[in-house]
Structure formats: C-alpha cells, structure tokens
Amino acid sequence: MDVNESSCVIIPCEFIQKPVQKTIWLKNPEYDSAIGEFVRTIVYDSETSLIDPAFRNRTEYLGNKDGNCTLKINDLQLNDTGNYKFRFKTEREWWISQSNVSITVHGFPKEVQVRFNHTENNEVKENETLTVTCEVKHSHPNVIFYIFMRNEEDLQNGSSSEFVISKVSENDAGEYSCKACNKIGSTMSPKLKLDVQYPPKEMEINSIEDKDNLKEGQSVTFNCNFQRSNPTVTKYVWYKNGIAVSNENMEKLTIKNISYTSDKGKIECEAHNKIGGTRSKQLTLNVMYGPTETYIEANVKTNQVKVGRNIVLECRTSSNPASHFTWHKNDSGGWKQQEPVGYQLTFQQITISNGGYFFCTAENDINSANSSIFHLDVLYPPTTPKMTFENNAREGFQAFIECQVESNPPAQLSISHIDKKSRDVKMMQDTNALKMCFMNLTSKDAGQYLCTADNTEGKSETKGDFIVKYSPKDVSLTILTSRVIENKPVKLVCDSVAYPPSSRYSWFKEQGDSQHKVGDNKELFFSSVSIQDSGQYFCTADNSMGQGHSKTSYLDVLYQPKKVRVLHNIGRSGVKQGDTIVLSCSCVSNPPANVYMWHKITENDMNSIVDNEQNITIHDFSVQHEGYYYCTAHNIVASESSQQISLFLFNWGALKIIASALMMLLFVSVLVIVIFMYRPSPQKRIGNEPDVVYSTVVNSGCDEQARELNENLHSNVKKKPTYDNDTLNYVSLPFHREHKEKEELPGKKEDNNHNSLGSPSNIYSKLQKPLKDKQKDKSDYENVKMPLQACQEKPTEHDGAARASEDLHYSTVTSYRTKKQNLEWESESSSEDESKKTVYSAVRL
C-alpha cells in the first residue's frame, strides 16, 4: 500500500475461526532460530502495554477473536513504512499469517541540514578540500534532487547529496544551504556560514629611495606591505639572499652605508598569521659593480645529455651594469670562441660533435669574469660495430677477431658464434673494444660471428664471416642411384667440407691389396655400368691446405640371371624306362634368383609349366615324361631362360646301327690318313675339305659334370653315377653345312637337324684303342655332342698335338642317318663352335 504522511490506513484481515486467546500485529518480523522467537516491532497487542511506543495510541484493532483481524493505523509517519503480519495464539500454539502487508508512507523530506565535513567551527584553510553534504533524516519517497547554494546563489543541482570543492579559495567563503526534493515536495535546510582562512596576500617591498640605482655608501629603508590576510598578520621576517637578517618583528628594514660586498644580492620580506607566511618577490639591490659569481647553467639537470635533444647553455653572472657575454670551447687542444655572442648558447638536436668543454666570459664597464668550465657530455648509443678478422687464419694456428665501436658511455661488447656456442677462448677487453683470441684454431671456429654493443642509450650489432682455411674434412662418397643395375647409368659423387673449397678430386677402386685410380672429377659416372665395375671405391678431395679421404663404399651392381643352364644326372647310357631324373637350374645373378620356373615342350610343340622350384625330380621316367625341358630364373632385375634339354627313352636298335657306323668310320678314317700321308700338301688339302674331322676321344666321361650337379642339387639323389672307362661310349660329331645355322633362343626347341642322332650332319665312327690282354673282347664307345662346356674345358691345339703320337687315332667317318632321336647330355649348345667350317675335336682313349 502507498499512503501519504499524516493520513490513516486500514489493513483488512481475516482468519479461520478458532478459539483465540490473544491477537498481535507485527512490523518487519524475522524469526530467530537461536531464541525460537520473532524479532519484531509490536504494532498492536491485546495487551496494550506491549505495543511499541512509536505506535501506541495510533493503532486500533477493528477485528475480533472470531475471524476478523482488521487493523487501523492513524497519523502515519515516514518510518511506518514496512511489512506487517498478523499473529494470534490458541490454547496450545501460536499462528502467524503466511503473507504480509507492505505499507509505504510518502511525505516531504524531514530534518534537512547542510554540513561541512572535516571542519572545526566551520573554518577551512585555503587550498584544502571541502565536502558540503545535504543531510535528510526522513524522506518517503526518497530524495531525487538536491540543490546547493552559497549566499543564496545556486552552486550545484543534481542527484548527488554532496558538493565537493577540491581546492578551497578565499572566494569560497559565505553562507551555504541546500534543498532536498522528492516526488511530494522539497525542504530547505538552514544556512551555515563557511570561514575560509589564508595567509597574507600580494606581498610587496617598497622603498623611498631609488632602489634601482644604489651606489655603495648610501642608506636605504624598505617597507613590507600586503593587501589582505585572514586572520591578521602577527609577524614579519626579512631575508637577504635567502637568509634571515632580522629577528625582530619589524615591518621596515633599514640598510645603512650599503656595500656591494656585504649587501649585494636579493632581499625579501615575509608576513605571517596563524595560517602561515607569505614571502614577497625578491628585490635585487642595484649596487653598481663588475661581474661576479659567473657560471654556466644548462636547461637539463645534469651535464649528461642524450644525442638529439635541444640544449641551451646560459652564462649566469652578477654585475651592474649588465654584462655582455662570449663563449669558448676546447676544440683540438685549444680554446676557440663560439658564435653567436650572447648569454645563451643553443644546440638544436645536439650531435656528438657538439659535446665538449665550455666556459663563458661576462664583461661590463667595470670589470669582466670567466665562468668555471662546463663539460657538456653528449650520450649516444653505440655506432655500428667494426669487426676485424685475421687475414690468413689457418687451422692449428693462432688467430683473433676484434670488435670496435664508438659510444658514450662506453659500451659492453660481446662476440659470439651465431650457429653454435663459442668455445672457451681468451677475451681481451678495452674501452669500446673487444678482442677474441684463438690459441689453436679449428675448422669449427669458422662461421658467422655476431658482435653486440650495448650501453644505456641503445644497442647495436653487426655480423661478420670468419674464414678459417683447412684441409678437406668429412669427405663422403654418395651413390646417387638407390639400385645399381647392369647396363644402366650410375653416378657417384664425392663431397667434402673444406676451405678453400676442394679443387681436385680423385677416385680409386680397391682390387685386393692394391688401389687403382679410376677418375679425376667430383663425380664418377658410369654410362653403362657392368659387373666388372662392382667393388670397393673411395675418393679423395684436395685443396691448398691438404687432402681428405672418404670411407670406402661398395658399388653393388645388380644383374639379371646369366649362364642359365640345366644340370642333370643322366649317364652315358641315356634315359631308360624307370630312371629317376634330377634336374637343377643353375645360374649366376645378383641378387640371387628367387623364382624358378620349369617348362616342358612336347613333340607337338605344347609348352607347359611343370614346377616352380630350383630342382625337380622325375621318378620312374616313362614315355609320358618325354619332351624338351628348360628352366627360367628370375630376380628383381629380370629373368633368363636356359637352353632346352631333351629327355627321351634310349633306342637300343639305333645303338647297334651306330656301332656299325663307327666301325665303318674308323676304316674310312684310316684310309683317308694313308692317302693324305702321300700327298704333297696335306695341310692345304685338309684346309680345303670341310668334311674332314680330327678327333680325340677323352675317356673322362661326365664325371666333372656329375660333380657340379651334386654340388648344386638339394635332392634325394645320394650317389652320383659312375661309369667304367672300358664300357662302350658313343660320340656324336657334328659336320657343318655350308650355310650358317641360326642361333637358338632360350626356351626354344633345339633344331632336330642339328642335334638329333639321325640328322644328316652327324657322322658316327667307331674308335678303339689297342686292346690289352684282358680287354681283347671289349670295345669302348662314346656318344658325344660337341662341345660339352659344362663337363669339360675346350682343349687347345697344343694339347692335341702333344698327345697325337700316343692318343690320336683316326677313324673312318661315315654319315649315318637313323630315326629321330636326341640324347642331350649338356645344358648348353655350342652354336659358336658349330658355325665354323672345320671342327677339331680331341677324342682321347
């Protein structure tokens, strides 16, 4: 409820009818659990003696004890604003209303007063801070506007209840009042007088005599005057040159027989009251004399000034009449007069060259005087450091790095390596100079160095390169190709760290205990690298200081499988029904072959893969196994195939025919030899006959091939085949046609006309050495396909001639054709030898 001051208000109230013994109205009740009771103001109580004095005789209970609890409050006051609750008591317990009734009483501001804070007797000293407060004891609604007045003139209007004078002056004295306003109206406070106290004002020294032209021997009287003071002046003090000259409380000062030496200077007077004293302006006694106490004064507190500042030097002196001035500076060991002439010497944005030592001269008609020397010390940051390096710094010798600057004050210098921490070296310090000394120089000391100069005015730095000469180090050999493959280009690079840079490079290849030079450039280039280029390499780098060596690096040349051939365990008698045939794929490669493939070609030219292992074993050989076999070896570079090997069952009928043919061949050979022995030019005639063959049968069989096979096989064959030297052996001697045979490709079937037993180019002969007694009934036969590269070395002509007398037998050679059959005992054909017109084959018995 909103009500006005001095009016009345009725608070309607009801409660459920109960047997009630006591009724109470409370203002602003708050329950205190500690005491178990409400802290409150009793507005009404059926026991009237308990009613609060502020509400006594102003409240009426209009209700009863049967359900009506209405209350009336008369003559409302501003402090009646609050929350009201009804409470009653039954026979057993107390009850209180859950909700409350809020009453707000509105009225004019009450008891408005103006106050001066922190004052005594409303007195305030000049220059103090004063706060004027408008105090309102009661106001509902609240005061929203204040008006402060001095001598009935408005000073401040606003919502603030305070008016602050930050620095009180004598003009702030007067009668102050304030007006407090709310929505109902306004109330004016009583007036309050403020007394502002201050020391004497507008001090002045007066004299009857002409104080501007005093001469020595005269007398003069000075008066100390002031314009106003609150409170009144109670004391006077006179000063000469800042020193009190009279202890008497005298308004006047008389100087008799004035003298320059004793009375020169400035006089002042000071008047005092209880607030304080005020000193007059200085009065200079104008006593005629020559310049004295001449000195230089600068517009800075110290003689040290920063470069770039505006500096003014003034020549101060005491003289009468006035003096004129000249300036002097110590420059290049002598004093020189400066321009312009005057009591001031000004430097606009002073520079380093403006600094130095100065004095001034003051002169009038009476005399002249010089000032003391003034040092104008110009401070400036370090200039860009100048770095000096040893001209010919060499590893292992002494060297230095020096850094110099110009600065004022002197700079702190440091020299450091930019890329790494400098090692401990000897440092020699001087004013604005620092030298770093290396007693035993190393290549690691080379590089870029930083010289830093620092003083109070700033910082400067510079960088410089320190060059150290040293022989090549960290010589390295780099193979630029990650995988070196035969017949591909390869580049090797030799790098080094040296100064001066390496001017000559050399390449070497290690061969056993020796080293062979293979190159003279920074790069070693193979346009088409070969297997023979594999090996250990190193390089050297040279400069004017010496030589450095790299570590050896192995050049590993990778190549595809080569010399791919088939090794087997087939004996002289050929392949028989039920044999166990072991085939091994042999090759040379880098890296080693890791994949093998076996192919079989039938007589119908059907090619099929039969296995993917390096070794294969054919158990219980039969007709279904017949065919031409070859293998293919693979590695990461490429693949290569072997020559074909024919596996067919041996034909014994053909063997008898061959034996007969050999006998006929032996007969024909003997006959031919006899004929040639009696001809005039046997060698020439032999060379002109392409069908003559000289052959020596070597009775070594394929023992060497068997040994090689057993070393390469990883199979179940435990024993290599051996053959009796006296058993029958057969040899197939190829006779070449006039035209050149085409070369076979790997993996292709061999030419039947060239390699088959029944081809027209094959001649069969029977060769027999003289029989021993125990061997009269035995004959040796050998079936040989020339050349047998895997089993035997190719004999030289010299070896054949040496054995001709005892081992060489000539046999009759006849051309014998049988049905198609091929007995391959070796993995490689001899197409190169077969291309010749005449074949020389040693057949040793």
Automatic annotation (TrEMBL):
Compositionally biased spans, kind Polar residues: 754-764
BP-aspect Gene Ontology terms: B cell activation; cell adhesion; negative regulation of B cell receptor signaling pathway; regulation of B cell proliferation
Principal location: membrane
Keyword flag Signal: yes
Keyword hit for Cell membrane: yes
Subcellular location: Cell membrane
Residue ranges with Basic and acidic residues bias: 739-753, 770-783, 794-809
Record key words, sorted: Cell adhesion, Cell membrane, Glycoprotein, Immunoglobulin domain, Membrane, Repeat, Signal, Transmembrane, Transmembrane helix
PROSITE patterns for this protein: IG_LIKE
Signal peptide stretch: none
Coiled-coil positions: none
Topological category with respect to the lipid bilayer: Single-pass type I membrane protein
Region: Disordered, residue numbers: 739-845
Transmembrane portions of the chain: 649-678
Any one GO CC term of the record: recycling endosome
MF GO annotations: CD4 receptor binding; protein phosphatase binding; sialic acid binding
InterPro entries: Ig-like_dom, Ig-like_dom_sf, Ig-like_fold, Ig_CD22, Ig_I-set, Ig_sub, Ig_sub2
Top-level taxon of the source organism: Eukaryota
Residue ranges of every copy of the Ig-like domain listed in the record: 109-189, 200-284, 291-372, 382-462, 472-556, 561-646
Subunit comment: Predominantly monomer of isoform CD22-beta. Also found as heterodimer of isoform CD22-beta and a shorter isoform. Interacts with PTPN6/SHP-1, LYN, SYK, PIK3R1/PIK3R2 and PLCG1 upon phosphorylation. Interacts with GRB2, INPP5D and SHC1 upon phosphorylation. May form a complex with INPP5D/SHIP, GRB2 and SHC1.
Protein's job: Most highly expressed siglec (sialic acid-binding immunoglobulin-like lectin) on B-cells that plays a role in various aspects of B-cell biology including differentiation, antigen presentation, and trafficking to bone marrow. Binds to alpha 2,6-linked sialic acid residues of surface molecules such as CD22 itself, CD45 and IgM in a cis configuration. Can also bind to ligands on other cells as an adhesion molecule in a trans configuration.
PANTHER family assigned: B-CELL RECEPTOR CD22
Protein name: B-cell receptor CD22
Organism: Polypterus senegalus
